[in-house]
Amino acid sequence: MAPQGSRAPLEFGGPLGAAALMLLLPATMFHLLLAARSGPARLLDLPPYLPRLEALWSPRALLLWFTWLGLQVAFYLLPARKMAEGQELKDKSRLRYPINGFQALVLTALLVGLGVLVGLPLGALTEMLLPLAFVATLTAFVFSLLLYLKALIAPASALAPGGNSGNPIYDFFLGRELNPRIGSFDFKYFCELRPGLIAWVLINLALLVQEAELRGSPSLAMWLVNGFQLLYVGDALWHEEAVLTTMDITHDGFGFMLAFGDLVWVPFTYSLQAQFLLYHPQPLELPMASALCLMNAVGFYIFRAANSQKNTFRKNPSDPRVADLETIPTATGRQLLVSGWWGMVRHPNYLGDLIMALAWSLPCGVSHLLPYFYLLYFTALLVHREARDEQQCLQKYGLAWHEYCRRVPYRIVPYVY
Ligand SMILES: NC(=O)C1=CN([C@@H]2O[C@H](COP(=O)(O)OP(=O)(O)OC[C@H]3O[C@@H](n4cnc5c(N)ncnc54)[C@H](OP(=O)(O)O)[C@@H]3O)[C@@H](O)[C@H]2O)C=CC1
Ligand SMILES: CC(C)CCC[C@@H](C)[C@H]1CC=C2C3=C(CC[C@@]21C)[C@@]1(C)CC[C@H](O)C(C)(C)[C@@H]1CC3
């Protein structure tokens, strides 16, 4: 049952928008997978061909996918170096989460390395991307249905503010329960980082290995894309605790949007640049490669410094690294930073992330739009996310938020937006 009197305004275009997204997102992903391996590799053309069911359905892919999920569950259940507490919930309690995502990345790397040493054909994974994406999509639908049903028996205090409109399509998409768990196993926290992000870099690596098999050695562009994205994923898992304060964990329910986004969209579309490079090798000279390394480093520096500054401040405002920063008090007792990174624009971390997104696409040259899909999608996602966050902050902080917006007028790009 939805909690009475607490209906949140509908997001994502309501039930119609949610239904459209549930069709459009998988369709877009399959289009990208097919276009990347087609000769013309055109983002805006109709799909080069429609795959037959035999090309999509493979029991081997199903087995591989469930083995992958099982492996990551096993790594999640291993003893963690630290247990972190999440944000305070409606009933004033706090959930505890294991911090062992980076350990899962290292263990996966060791296992895959061992596999390759004994003859595992890692490059062959690139031939299975289509059936893997298909079984992963089916899994995401079934999983979201189970989450929806589980939420029917959850107490009102466990429900998310957004996904309880009473419309089944909308609630299925957005997710009804905030932190669905069985015992201490937290489904949303588990899915947010590990299976999708680690699969992303593993797919990238398989594409690099396949390129080496086809052409004798991996191209410089492929090395760059692999290196940049591995840094991003390694950083996310190293700073795993920070995910506990993102809106995905604190605000959004766990439904199709995040289940599909985390488990399917991330590994199969975020690896698009490496997929494109395998089928469309691009020349890249050393001076250009150095410039792209610099661009990625600048983006990463802004992204990491801004995120760490906010996390340090939220954990302990008197920490010497942030104690001198100027702040605005709010009625909630919390403060808002108005100097340092958060005094430049209201989302400096998004700016850094966008600069990195550009550095990941440029190694693919400028002859095709396809490798720029991530940059285009990500810009739209962050602009929309920024607007959602703004709404939530306005509700939380009221006048203090208005004051912050007056003092820091630009959202993401100084003097532009
Ligand atoms: N690669 C990808 O696909 C994606 C990456 N990201 C990345 O994830 C990271 C996290 O992003 P996201 O969860 O959207 O949001 P943020 O990390 O930007 O967090 C927003 C929250 O920060 C707090 N805040 C805002 N302004 C201030 C301030 N001036 N002083 C102190 N606290 C402030 C508010 O929460 P409160 O006050 O309650 O603490 C606000 O709700 C970003 O780096 C983003 O780029 C995000 C989405 C997708
Ligand atoms: C396509 C759908 C409409 C929306 C799906 C969105 C999801 C793919 C993203 C929502 C927030 C995300 C975050 C990351 C990955 C993408 C999703 C799941 C993130 C884990 C990437 C790595 C970063 O360092 C991070 C800050 C940990 C990110 C957190 C948010």
UniProtKB/TrEMBL annotation:
<keyword id="KW-0812">Transmembrane</keyword>
<feature type="transmembrane region" description="Helical">
    <location>
        <begin position="56"/>
        <end position="78"/>
    </location>
</feature>
<keyword id="KW-0153">Cholesterol metabolism</keyword>
<keyword id="KW-0472">Membrane</keyword>
<keyword id="KW-0444">Lipid biosynthesis</keyword>
<dbReference type="GO" id="GO:0005637">
    <property type="term" value="C:nuclear inner membrane"/>
</dbReference>
<feature type="transmembrane region" description="Helical">
    <location>
        <begin position="354"/>
        <end position="375"/>
    </location>
</feature>
<keyword id="KW-0752">Steroid biosynthesis</keyword>
<keyword id="KW-0152">Cholesterol biosynthesis</keyword>
<feature type="transmembrane region" description="Helical">
    <location>
        <begin position="99"/>
        <end position="122"/>
    </location>
</feature>
<feature type="transmembrane region" description="Helical">
    <location>
        <begin position="128"/>
        <end position="149"/>
    </location>
</feature>
<comment type="pathway">
    <text>Steroid biosynthesis; cholesterol biosynthesis.</text>
</comment>
<feature type="transmembrane region" description="Helical">
    <location>
        <begin position="250"/>
        <end position="268"/>
    </location>
</feature>
<dbReference type="GO" id="GO:0050613">
    <property type="term" value="F:Delta14-sterol reductase activity"/>
</dbReference>
<protein>
    <recommendedName>
        <fullName>Delta(14)-sterol reductase TM7SF2</fullName>
        <ecNumber>1.3.1.70</ecNumber>
    </recommendedName>
</protein>
<keyword id="KW-1133">Transmembrane helix</keyword>
<dbReference type="GO" id="GO:0005789">
    <property type="term" value="C:endoplasmic reticulum membrane"/>
</dbReference>
<keyword id="KW-0256">Endoplasmic reticulum</keyword>
<keyword id="KW-0753">Steroid metabolism</keyword>
<comment type="function">
    <text>Catalyzes the reduction of the C14-unsaturated bond of lanosterol, as part of the metabolic pathway leading to cholesterol biosynthesis.</text>
</comment>
<dbReference type="GO" id="GO:0006695">
    <property type="term" value="P:cholesterol biosynthetic process"/>
</dbReference>
<dbReference type="InterPro" id="IPR001171">
    <property type="entry name" value="ERG24_DHCR-like"/>
</dbReference>
<dbReference type="InterPro" id="IPR018083">
    <property type="entry name" value="Sterol_reductase_CS"/>
</dbReference>
<dbReference type="Pfam" id="PF01222">
    <property type="entry name" value="ERG4_ERG24"/>
</dbReference>
<comment type="similarity">
    <text>Belongs to the ERG4/ERG24 family.</text>
</comment>
<keyword id="KW-0756">Sterol biosynthesis</keyword>
<keyword id="KW-0443">Lipid metabolism</keyword>
<keyword id="KW-1207">Sterol metabolism</keyword>
<feature type="transmembrane region" description="Helical">
    <location>
        <begin position="12"/>
        <end position="36"/>
    </location>
</feature>
<feature type="transmembrane region" description="Helical">
    <location>
        <begin position="288"/>
        <end position="306"/>
    </location>
</feature>
<keyword id="KW-0560">Oxidoreductase</keyword>
